[in-house]
Amino acid sequence: MVLVVFLLAYLTRRKLDAANLWSVDPLWRAAFRRSSQVRAGKESAKWKGLFMVALPALLLGLCEWFLGEQGWRVAAYPLEFLLLVMLMGAPGWRSPLEAYSASWARGDMQAAWHHIKDLLPAGERGAAVSPDAMHLILSRTLMVTVFERFFLIAFWYVLGGITVAFFARGVIALRDHWPQAAARPGFAALAEVLNWLPSRLLSLTFGVAGDLAGWMSEGKRTLTGVALKTDEVLMDAANGALTGYALDPGRFSRIHPDEWANYGRRSLDAIRDLLSRSMLVWICALALLVIAGVR
To answer: pTM above the 0.85 mark?
Structure first.
């Protein structure tokens, strides 16, 4: 049932994302805002945020345990489906990326920037001083977002159930939405711990789903780079697994100057295709685990 529940939730979430529906980020922000008041000088404290995430996760675990003890485990699957649909998803990306690609094709880089600037991390918006830098920041943000909103949830759901998946997604929400900015670096460090293993598994999957030879020559170092952060792991692995210089705009512009107008769309399409194929690999692997009786 783990495979069935996840597959149904994933397909439902993709439909919702395509229609730009049901973003749960406002719910996270509202919940944190109401309970985040701290005394002066204690702005960096993280215990309250972690408690707000860990308590409902623990309650979910207790609920599943109770249903299992009563022989009603099947009653928990609709709840898991609903929670997975809420935990996954990255609505709001489709229209800006389409507008960005169209502006890039016209050569209007200023318009392209305005279409996607709100999607970028606030601390990196000022670094997009050239089309190359802007596109690489956008590509990195897109990959990390999809990883944390889909692959991270899938990994921890299969490994630890809905309890751990909820906690992992809650930590990501704390990092992004906790009102006290001083506490966010601590949440970001915890997020990196939770991201460490699934990001390297996705890096390996990029080699399977993409250009294995290119990944072997450039991307496999991500498996041994213990200190590499999530964005570095994904960018290095994807750069090796993608062909056509999809993540090397400078080199592409030198080799194919006549096709530069189409680069923005081609690069984003290549990234999204690689991520989609990688999720298919994960689903197939989960199916094999189910067949083998592991899950």
So the answer is: yes
The model's pLDDT over 199-249, given as tens digits with 9 standing for 90+, comes to 999 999 999 998 888 888 876 777 777 889 999 999 999 998 998 888 999
Alpha carbon dihedral 119, 122, 123, 124, in 10-degree steps, equals: 30
Sole residue written with tokens 């392209």: 112
Reading the block at residue 169, the tokens are 């997604």
Tokens of 290: 């189910």
pLDDT tens-digit series, residues 241-263: 998 888 999 899 888 888 899 99
Let me know if 16 is exposed, middle or buried by CB neighbors in 10 A (0-12, 13-18, 19+).
Answer: middle
Helix boundaries (H) for the chain: 2-18, 25-34, 47-69, 77-87, 94-106, 109-116, 131-146, 152-177, 184-209, 212-214, 230-241, 249-255, 263-291
Spatial distance between the Cα atoms of 186 and 191, rounded to a whole number of angstroms = 9
Tokens 């956008």 label which residue?
Answer: 138
pLDDT band for position 70 (50/70/90)?
Answer: confident
Closest CA to 157 of 238, 92, 248, 76: 76
Q: CA dihedral in degrees (156, 196, 233, 109; nearest 10)?
A: 60
Are 117 and 235 in contact, with CB atoms under 8 Å apart? no
- Closest-CA residue to 246 (of 141, 147, 135): 135
